[in-house]
Automatic annotation (TrEMBL):
Xref: SUPFAM superfamilies: Staphylococcal nuclease
Protein name: Nuclease
Gene3D superfamilies xref list: 2.40.50.90
Keywords noted in UniProt: Signal
SMART domains xrefs: SNc
InterPro entries: Excalibur_Ca-bd_domain, SNase_OB-fold_sf, Staphylococal_nuclease_OB-fold
Any Pfam family matching the protein: Excalibur
Species the sequence originates in: Planomonospora sphaerica
Domain TNase-like: 37-166
Amino acid sequence: MRRVLRLALPVVTALVALPLTASPAAAAGSAAGLPRGVQKARVVRIVDGDTIEVRFGKSSRAVRVRLLGLDTPEYGRCWFDSATERARTLLPLGRTAYLLRDRDYKDHYGRRLFYVYNHRGLSVARNLIRYGYAKSLLYRKNDRYIRTMRLEEARARKRRLRIWSGRCDSSKDLVAPLPVEARTAGYAGPGWSPDPRFRTCRSALSAGFGPYERSVHPEYAWYHDADRDGLVCER
């Protein structure tokens, strides 16, 4: 009997070790620096600066998503149009977006709650807050990146960017998509300042910062690129 159990054990262990499904991160595509657990979707509508609609896989049903970590101006308020246009620039219709859950999955309107990254792996909420299109927002217990969002808000507030400027947006603000920022994952342009500097990448990642790409992010030079792939502080 003991002999049978000893022989069977490796088989059981092997079965347990096999993943039940492919990991979402593995299926996420080629965007660099995405956190583990993201889901891939396609952008089908921009409702406003913090609400979008996406489709998962081959489904024909549009799912409404409320972005976590931020709050943009409501319809009719100053900077509503600019925040919506900025979201549209960051999340082009028909392109891939990567969605990450936190603790709560739905709000009281039935919208799905996700952190959203665009096809380049850029955190949309962080970009909108960094450049003054939105405030940081802790929604219930979804606090995974709230410290990072609040740091970005403090920077934008200090520089009196957009919603912190004391004025309303105009037609000039709507025709300035800031293409350089879009190409460099949002780490350039008006009001830019570097991330906090940490002793190690592990500390940076724990605080919600990184990854950094060579020739794109100045913060890249602070850390050791052990595998020489042009990225440091990868998740």
